[in-house]
Design goal:
This protein is of the alpha+beta class and 319 residues long. The chain has two domains: 1-117, no CATH class; 120-318, Beta Barrel (Porin), CATH 2.40.160.20. The chain has helices at residues 2-36, 41-49, 64-117, 299-302; strands at residues 123-134, 138-142, 148-151, 155-166, 171-183, 191-209, 214-234, 241-247, 250-264, 267-277, 279-287, 290-292, 303-305, 308-318. The strands form two sheets. Strands 1-4-5-6-7-9-10-14 form an eight-stranded antiparallel barrel. Strands 2-3 form a two-stranded antiparallel sheet.
């Protein structure tokens, strides 16, 4: 039994060695087929079948089919890196194309705002109402009851028309024509005091956009004030007294600030404030129909200060 066991053990070892050799040959054959698959797998198949008919086929020949079946996977593994390069290049192209698109998304809103609020080459017409207060009060005198009347040559109520033109996207030039009237304060039934004047204002403005609906305008300029007339009419025995003072045209300066909000296409609501300074010089003085020397007027009437702060509301239409 010991000798038989030894032989059996030797046969078993030889069998294992033979099996290992066969397995190594099978792996080398699969590797050769896989490397050949990078060329043309179908062209290698006839070479494998051109062996003589009498020659016994190796034991691993039956496993060529699995190797051939696995060839597509080997081919896929070899081709895949090359195929992966092409999609990588193709994917980089859309990424390169999306960069300009992202830039357009950031630029387009600012361009649309600039286009919506641009005044360049556009005319506008504004109609507005004025209400303001003067910087200096002038005492007219006492009336029945001992009350003092006073007025201011600045401020008051009025109306105006503005024609504007956009020189650039951020600058505008306006020409405003209007008239104002100031009255006595406090209101008294025994006297009427009015100061009327007309004006023509030339204003340069700088435009500051807020969004596609709103913007501010800041500016300043020079104005001509004409047809200034002061009338003081007191009522009493014998019809009272009527005094009229006419003034020479005067020139003054002003600063302005406007808020503009669009509520329709090319149509906007405007609210603004204007600070002005001007001084009028008396031209003639008439009392009860008789011309009087200017020296009979007090200094405040001969050189009448007409500075004030005016608040305006306007409707603007752009063309």
């Amino acid at each position: 039994m010991g000798r038989i066991g030894t032989w059996l053990l030797a046969v078993l070892v030889c069998s294992l060695v033979a099996a290992s050799a066969a397995l190594a040959g099978e792996q080398q054959s699969g590797t050769a087929l896989s490397s050949a698959a990078t060329g043309t797998v179908l062209q290698e198949q006839p070479a494998a079948t051109e062996k003589p008919a009498g020659e016994p086929r190796p034991e691993t020949a039956g496993e060529i089919k699995p190797a051939l079946q696995s060839a597509p996977s080997a081919t896929a593994q070899i081709v895949t890196p090359e195929a992966e390069k092409a999609p990588a290049v193709e994917e980089s192209k859309p990424q390169a194309e999306t960069k300009p698109a992202a830039a357009e998304l950031t630029i387009a809103p600012s361009q649309s705002v600039a286009a919506a609020l641009s005044t360049k080459g556009k005319f506008n017409v504004e109609l507005g109402l004025i209400g303001g207060v003067g910087f200096k009060q002038v005492d007219v005198g006492k009336i029945t009851g001992g009350d003092h009347l006073w007025f201011s040559a600045g401020g008051g109520y009025g109306a105006e028309v503005t024609i504007g033109y956009g020189a650039t996207d951020r600058t505008e030039v306006d020409l405003t024509l209007g008239g104002q009237e100031s009255v006595e304060m406090p209101d008294n039934p025994d006297a009427d005091v009015t100061f009327q004047r007309g004006f023509v204002l030339a204003t340069g403005k700088y435009v500051v956009p807020v969004n596609d609906r709103m913007r501010f305008k800041i500016g300043g300029g020079i104005g001509r004030y004409s047809a200034g007339r002061l009338e003081v009419h007191t009522f009493g025995v014998g019809g009272g007294v009527l005094g009229v003072v006419d003034y020479n045209p005067a020139y003054g300066l002003h600063l302005s600030g406007d808020f503009e909000g669009f509520f329709a296409t090319n149509t906007a609501f405007v609210a603004g404030v204007r600070l002005s300074t001007v001084r009028y010089k008396a031209m003639q003085y008439v009392k009860d129909g008789t011309l009087q020397p200017l020296e009979d007027l007090s200094g405040d009437f001969r050189n009448l200060y007409g500075g004030g702060a005016d608040f305006t509301i306007r409707i603007a239409r752009y063309f």
